[in-house]
Specification:
single chain, mainly alpha, two-stranded antiparallel ribbon, two-stranded antiparallel sheet, 16 helices, 46% helix
Length: 340
């Protein structure tokens, strides 16, 4: 049991690190955040210094990870309902998995040939678990790696999630079906999360005064007026997040980004397992080494399937499309629009 708990602890830390310095910087393709997120983990002194001398100074110099004690800023730690709301990213999911043939030799960094498209409904629950087991881990990884995610936009919600068969804790199916898109709106309202404009005001961001402030898409504006009329104050936060114009280099909205910015630091500095207990005594020497030497999801996949990654994973990050050319980050610093 102790071994299982330790394994979960180490795995959780690896996931937290990948989320901080690998996944987030692919979602926010901006040089500023590549430096900023690595600074969150390693500090301004950087990884080489930290690897040599350990954690030195405060969270700014030495990074949030490894601080002497957690910092809650006088508020009990929690993941807020607002954080849950902006993480409703199901629009990223496709309606089918494009299964690839990984037994062929790659040609000029082209993606492996498509075998068939498997509906996502077939990959849900116990039947889906069995189906993925039949496909195999490597074929699944390569297929997912060569298929781009969808965009976080309105009218882009996966069809299979609109009629989802819900599962019991043991994986068996429940008799009722779920429209997850409608449920997500319902949950925000049920939990009294602020509507879009008030949500932005709470973050010191400028609210919209008309639908054209939110988007230039005339079809989206027409649809918004059909649902909400001309009252922009009624706009649900999730709908607004999906409709909002994106900053160059961002896969998420500016509103979502502000919550990301706050919580990216908070979830590290408030957790004892990344601060006072981030040591060999808690993780073991091998466990801590495992966390410290993992820099990306690509490292994890390559550790288990080196031949597969050498053959197919050509991108700098496993979160990019694996055969895509390098995506140059946006070098323009980001600003937050603060009302006068």
């Amino acid at each position: 049991m102790l071994f299982v708990m330790l394994s979960r602890l180490v795995t959780s830390a690896v996931i937290a690190k990948i989320h901080t310095i690998d996944w987030t910087v692919e979602l926010l393709k901006v040089d500023t955040f590549l430096a900023g997120m690595r600074g969150n983990w390693y500090g301004l002194l950087g990884k080489p210094f930290k690897d040599t001398f350990g954690h030195v100074g405060d969270g700014i110099l030495g990074g949030l990870v490894g601080m002497k004690k957690p910092d809650n800023h006088g508020v009990p730690y929690s993941l807020t309902e607002e954080f849950v709301s902006v993480y409703r990213m199901h629009a990223l999911l496709p309606d089918s998995l494009h299964l690839r043939n990984i037994d062929v030799l790659p040609e000029d960094n082209k993606s492996p040939p498509l075998i068939k498209e498997i509906p996502m409904n077939d990959l849900v629950g116990l039947p889906g678990e069995k189906k993925l087991s039949e496909i195999g881990v490597q074929e699944t990884l390569v297929s997912m790696g060569h298929q781009a995610s969808r965009a976080l936009e309105l009218q882009n919600y996966p069809s299979f999630l609109r009629n989802l068969v819900s599962q019991n804790i043991d994986g068996t199916e429940r008799p009722d079906h779920v429209d997850l898109a409608a449920l997500e709106i319902y949950r925000d309202r049920e939990r009294q999360v602020a509507r879009y404009n008030q949500f932005r005001r709470s973050l010191l961001l400028i609210p919209i005064s008309k639908w054209e402030d939110l988007t230039d898409d005339k079809e989206i504006i027409k649809a918004l007026k059909e649902v909400y009329g001309n009252d922009v104050e009624l706009l649900d936060v999730l709908v607004g997040l999906m409709a909002e114009k994106k900053i160059k280099g961002f896969a998420i909205s500016e509103t979502t980004f502000v919550i990301f910015l706050i919580m990216a630091s908070r979830r590290l500095e408030a957790d004892r397992f990344y601060t006072s207990n981030f040591n060999e005594e808690t993780y073991t020497k091998k466990g801590l080494e495992w966390v410290n030497t993992t820099e990306s999801l690509k490292d994890v996949i390559d550790r288990h399937y080196p031949k597969m990654t050498k053959k197919w994973l050509n991108a700098s990050s496993a979160f990019s499309v694996w055969d895509a050319p390098p995506n140059k980050p946006n070098p323009i610093p980001i600003y937050l629009r603060i009302p006068n």
